[in-house]
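User: For a benchmark we're assembling, each entry needs the component sequences followed by a predicted structure for the full assembly. Here are entry 17's components. Please fill in the structure.
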Amino acid sequence: MSIRTIIGLEIHVELSTKSKIFCSCSTDFGSTANSQCCPICIGMPGSLPTLNKKVVDYAVKAGLALNCNIARESNMDRKNYFYPDLVKGYQITQYDQPLCKNGFLEIGQGKNIKKIGIKRIHIEEDTGKSLHTNQDVTLLDYNRSGVPLIEIVTEPDLSSAEETKEFLESLRDILKYIGISDVKMEEGSLRCDVNINVANENGKSFSNITELKNLNSFKSVVKAIEFEENRHRLLLQEDKNTSKETRRWDDIANITISMRSKETEYDYRYFLEPDIMNIALSEDEINKIKETLPELPRDKRERWATIFKLPEYDINILTSFLELANFFEETMAYYNSPKKLSNWIMTELLRRLKEEEMDINQLIFTPKDLAELLDLIDKGVINNSIGKKVFMEMFNGEGKPKIIAEKNGWIQIEDIKVIDEVLRGILRENPHSVNDYRNGKDRAFGYLVGQSMKALKGKGNPQLINKVLKKLLEE
Amino acid sequence: MKLELYNLSMYEIKKKIEKKEIKAVEVLESTLKRIESVEDKVQSYLTLTKDIAFCKANEIDKRIANNEAIGELGGIPMAIKDNICTEEILTTCASKMLHNFVPPYSATVYEKLLMEDGVMLGKTNMDEFAMGSSTESSFHKKTRNPWDISKVPGGSSGGSASAVAAGEAFFALGSDTGGSIRQPAAFCGVVGLKPTYGLVSRYGLVAMANSLDHIGPITKDVTDCALVLNAIIGYDSKDGTSIKRDKIDYLKTLNGEIKGLRIAIPREYFDENLSEPVRKALIEAIQVFENLGAVCEEVSLPNTKYAMAVYYIISQTEVSLALARFDGIRYGHRALNYRNIEELVKYTRSEGFGPEVKTRIVLGTHWLSGDNYKEYYQKANEVRKLIRLDFNNIFSNYDVVLTPTSATAAFELGSSQEKSLARQKIDKYTVAANLAGIPAISIPCGFDKGLPIGMQLMGKNFDEETLLRVARAFERNTSLDHKPSL
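Assistant: Structure for entry 17:
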């Protein structure tokens, strides 16, 4: 009997708007507890929510990037439940009229492309946070209360942990590309609940859906799905179906643990939010948002493979975030060797950024500067190792590459007379090595090259040194 | 009888202060003296803010002495219903739940009044969380009708209406969810206006039922009403339902003619529930309008018969959510003994809310639970649209709709407790305006055995101008000039 796995996701994404969804409080992460709160965030009597228009724009942007239909008119609803970190006793969310519906995201390559349906995307507010101390005291931090979220709900189209991971990575890249979230799972700005069950191929027998919560990394998503997949398969084979339930992933024990039966789900008593007027979007507004969409990662990779002919590995790294991809493309506007540029970015630039804990948009030099540097190397004005020195100086803000090289006297020595003279001196000083070479010891040649380079203070053209040295040794 | 300052209208006081005939402090002292002498009997106030009042009155006098400009309400003592947040002043909603709540912010309306230099006297009694029609559900005290202290002042803005009627304030703000400004205004013989939804900001009004709640003025006469309305209207970015529109000066057109104006008299509002004296007073009022050249015609608002049912379902539904935030965690009352958070919330709510509030929360929860959502809540919303449509139809032909405000004059204290259904009928004529969001005003139009009778006029959306002009025309051409003898 072949069994297939059915997975659907509910993903909460914190939007990176500067202010909260219903007030002007800051959304900065990691501030002192309760320092970013106003009467609206803590649900004081008489306070009213007013909708942050940016939140709607961001959600629409996500919807367009994920091929959704955008609702021309929608509204907000109240979802009722009691929880100490839910300040109003209800959450303002969207129920029957989400902003975006019926989209998809493609995963896989070539013949194996698979469309994963996006059922809906809606906007809502986040709750506060409860902190339980070991003295059995509960503390409440309302900084997160009112931070804007979108909830992305997929169709149950995923069928393995691998696919789920690919989907989530692709989704994360897109959301980051379009600039609506920093999608950091460890900071809670991307939260994923997994609904999973298995069915035999004819679909006649299947296990009951499990909802997996508290997954705080892609790794735990994969591991939890694999664990549940196995558990469900065994249950199905032994005909021991459990009830619908919510389980949590234990990162240490590597197992899932039952939290509550899904059948005791609350009656949320949704109803229309009367304090916020309907959200109406004109064709014009939607088009304007569409214009702000950048090329999405998948399209970019395809295009780059065609025009730059770079290896897949390079492309994946260079397109991993938009600013880097943009930097590459802007540099390519002044330069014509994609692979060489790619090597420089992947080694020198990314290493340096990592060392300095810097963001690419904090760079002092411009793409044009980098192109000029590579050009100087290609033309033999400086050699590769001097090039790395120049790069460091550029990185530190010392100016244009040519000027740096000139100022430091790093311009390559191309004068054959100068090289000839220096090399003759080296040979005179190292008769042993000359002898060794002539007796067939090739290592001696390398030593003599090194000595010559040293004597030329690293500025000699390596090809020229090789040529002249060979000629002199054969004299 | 010596005409004391507190007896004058705010419009008259305003002129006297501006002409430097009297000082703001004198007006304040006269009013405070009045409060001292009648408050024991009437019980309008929950909190008095004498210090704040004196501070402001002195400041105004100083500015006048220096020939500096003062606001439109400069020096006029005012009272605010206790469900409107006032910074650093207790705002209890007449509930144990908020007995200790001092908001760190002010309602937009209060800020606007302060900006126009109103003198803050205090917070007025009300039904708990604005639920009730007699001010008897207040946790703190029972307010009495200044015309007869054995009678209720109406509700839920009973304290505001009684304060104005008894001369304890020149005007007061109330809130109106199903008639809570107009009905007490009618019972106390004063003017009460529920403006169009969205004209006056609700920011800072502790919500009862958000889609039905309004803030409005209670005043001695229509001119004062226009004056206060001028001060409190305007778009507010803090209220998502606030409407952007050009500001109107309601005083400008107030005394215009009403000749040729078309007045609709809906037959559904003149039913068997209406008491004979009220019916008689209204028929006489219609006569006054006809004499002024207005055209009065009988019309039908066929969906009126559903208004009460729809009102109760929608308002209770919204109540059940609006009050969900009171959990004892961040502000207000908190139960003393509990073992966990669930108990903390449960005991806090069971101790903090009074019976009327609990009843409505339970009913509201019921209207939303399971299939009831479709059966009741959704249906009620559909009928609400029909009621709006009824009004739209009428207003395509008429300028205002004239009805009684309440079926009877004020009733005995304690009598409403026994007859809950009868009490609900009291709201019968006022709820439709809240469901439709249209403006409605109640003005005195007669007496029943010494108790005032109110007439309600409803107008087109944002046409407070016409509404006030019609009300003022009536006022000018009648003489109902006596005052309660306290």
